[in-house]
Amino acid sequence: MGSSPKTLQRLKQLTWDGFLQPGSSICDIGATQLFGDASGHNARDFLTFYAERYDQAIPPDSADPDKLAAIINNGFLGDLLILAGFKYTALDIFHGTNTILFDLNVHAPGRDLHGKFDLILNLGTTEHVFNQLRAFQTIHDLTRLDGLIYNDLPMGGYLNHALYRYDPLFFSSVLPANCYEKVLEQISVGGGDQGPERPD
């Protein structure tokens, strides 16, 4: 599961537009890593943005430099979100920052998690889950009333990477079926990596 500077920009935009309050509770579907910020400029800008808006956020100059370096070098997005003042939890089958061991194929949120989160992040996780109904039901159940669900999932490419790719029709069908409102929609073009070599 991966995030990028694009993810950080979108989270700031959601805050700028009034949809995501600083200090909100976030549930990460899969303990996401941060990629593509080798210089650390985007992570530092993210911390600065939230430190200017929330007194519990830690500005980059006050953060532990070793911890910040670990985040920048493909570390966990959750560590950056915590520094920015968010209350962060992840659900995953592997250990990570503030992670509850949870299999999206079979588990369901209990009472302690139901409706608890202001924002759910699904940044490249559900395409690896066989049981799509259970996975998206979990996302729905975790989200508080008027909360946000942020899906950043593949629509094409990624040959031999995932079980599923998502068509815009999927999301345009999910929205009215669940009385959701769309607040942001963007389609990104991925990198130029080639597919695997064709065997002779």
TrEMBL record:
Cross-referenced SUPFAM superfamilies: S-adenosyl-L-methionine-dependent methyltransferases (SSF53335)
UniProt-recorded Gene Ontology molecular function terms: methyltransferase activity
An annotated GO BP: methylation
Domain of life: Bacteria
The entry's keywords: Methyltransferase, Transferase
Name the UniProt record assigns to this protein: Class I SAM-dependent methyltransferase
